[in-house]
Amino acid sequence: xxxxxxxxxxxxxxxxxxRRWNDKLxxxxxxxxxxxxxxxxxxxxxxxxxxxxxxxxEQRRIGLEIIEGGIFxxxxxxxxxxxxxxxxxxxxxxxxxxxxxxxxxxxxxxxxIRPLDENFWQRLVAYHTRPADTTDSLADRILSAAHMYASRxxxxxxEPLNGFDEEIKDIGPSFNRKLLAxxxxxxxxxxxxxxxxxxxRMANLCGQLRFQIRWAQTPRMPVTSVLGHMFIxxxxxxxLSLHLDGCPQRRINDFYCGLFHxxxxxxxxxxxxxxxxxxxxxxxxxxxxxxxxxHSKILDPLEQEGCGHIRERLDYYLGLATNSExxxxxxxDGDVIKVNGFAELGGxxxxxxxxxxxxxxxxxxxxxxxxxxxxxxxxxGVGSPHLYEAMARMRRECSGIRLGNxxxxxxxxxxx
Length: 416
Known about the structure:
globular; mainly alpha; Hypothetical protein af1432; two-stranded antiparallel ribbon
């Protein structure tokens, strides 16, 4: 019996505790969650650029490989958290040592992942036990380029502060060499060009979401950023869509809708729910401002530089046609239509041809991620009236949420 468990959700969230570059002087704390979100945003841009001339089936196949490869890499990283990258790369270069490390890692992952879905688990095992000469597909190269870009972006923050560190002089050129080796991946040149292209500008702007702290006026442990939260929602959404037998296109859409659902906060900052509800007209004012800024800073530049296909997908993920990313939608004869709830979406439109997207599911995962942020802080001994109030409110709001055979209330009841 497939199941979404508390332990799995907490495992996915544990990247919020993983500091990056923790042997270097850092201007801000850098966390694994943020890096993974940035990586997958860049992977989305490169996927769109490299598959726009392919058939929809081929584009979809590569898209799923990228999403699941990114998730599989993240799970592996969560287990080997204490191994520094240079040491890991040396282990990976030794076939026998890497096989032993991978066997141990998979053994640690199995009780967490296998209960979710047997086929998903088998794909994860196959991904991490592939022969080295089969790891150079387009999806692999896109993930490698996205990983290098996101790591290089972080390195550019710490490099000026670490001139005394002998390792620093070798790290920057290493990133550049590895990215240059992937220049055949369309879009890499634009990313290397800095902020001079719409593609690079979007990747750079999205990276800055790691500086925006959620619940900014409330002490918490761990602290999470808007960027990291987006990744958590994306992974939760993908796994829940998988659990509920979403078709491949639906799973892709749910992942990227989760990943981009707070993109507008790059322009407005994170505004907590009580403030949004404090003035009757405030939500509409915020929404109008977000829409204007999204178009002027991100969507219109993409269109103007020949990336209209990326702009079109972002429009869909952000719910611009129906005024909310949390609406259930699909396409019929090319038109975006709002669907009357989860049951209708799953019953009538759960096929790739309809391009289905679960707004209610994304909203449930957004609430679930926020709940776990509050719960984790209280569990770690850092609580406040605001956190307790937020948890109580989210429990009330989720008490009646049911998506197919998945009910949110019993899952939250495990967090007592």
